[in-house]
Amino acid sequence: MRRKLVVGNWKMHGSIATNKVLLEGVIKGVGQARDADYVVCVPYPYLCQAQHMLEGTNIAWGAQNLCARGDGAVTGAVSPTMLTDWGCTYVIIGHSERRMQFHETDDTAAARFHAAQEAGMTPILCMGETREERDSDWTEFIVGRQLDSILRRYGPGVLKNSILAYEPLWAVGTGHPATPEQAQEVHAFIRARIARCDAEIAAKVRILYGGSVKPENAAQLFRMPDIDGGLIGGASLTAESFVPICLAANALDAATMHWAAAL
């Protein structure tokens, strides 16, 4: 049974004052909701604040990117060990905004994925297609290529300590999410592709959906059999929207565990 996971991606938002209000609200809102897992991925300057406020809670924290190289002459970059110094246990890899705006590739995403694992962090690998690619029936080709960039290099075993995220670019930040059925179709494809290499790992790896998830549609998405939670962008910026999404995941996991215990 896969435990639900909700990851907040603040992107380039935040301030010391607004972060304090947000994190206090999230801590209060999910402190007793212990049937699912929660993470916030914050901008680099706020990792210290996240560690200070979240240490000892049921909320983990992570970063939104890293450099695949260790310490060295790479001006402006942040190494994996710098992140672990601040208690990061998760890091987002290959987000669509990084791929599109900073020209990151499958190859650089694979290198960052490996570097995160080598440092003891759990990478959250993002995959997804553009509207044009979906309309051309290229979704499986694009998502499969992005997934294969990891599987070909490192084998399916690396997925034991990783999270996958399907985030269709046409849904990210648009207010027009994939329907639960559309998202489930791609999640099932991802799981089946992994199963061709290792059925046991495919059954256990958590695959999140990202793309305009809101309190109003979270439960419907999370009920899909291959959707294990969400990678939440805009709705993670206020406790009023993020907490209900977390609670939707928690409620579904609690109901599943109660059902399993009754068998």
UniProtKB/TrEMBL annotation:
Coiled-coil spans in chain: none
Superkingdom in the source lineage: Bacteria
Compartments reported by the entry: Cytoplasm
Pathway field: Carbohydrate metabolism; erythritol degradation; Carbohydrate biosynthesis; gluconeogenesis; Carbohydrate degradation; glycolysis; D-glyceraldehyde 3-phosphate from glycerone phosphate: step 1/1
Principal location class: cytoplasm
EC number: 5.3.1.1
Annotated active site: 95, 167
Keyword tags: Cytoplasm, Gluconeogenesis, Glycolysis, Isomerase
EC class (word): isomerase
Reaction equations catalysed: D-glyceraldehyde 3-phosphate = dihydroxyacetone phosphate
Protein family membership: Belongs to the triosephosphate isomerase family.
PANTHER family: TRIOSEPHOSPHATE ISOMERASE (PTHR21139)
Assembly mode: Homodimer.
Official protein name in the record: Triosephosphate isomerase
Organism this protein belongs to: Novimethylophilus kurashikiensis
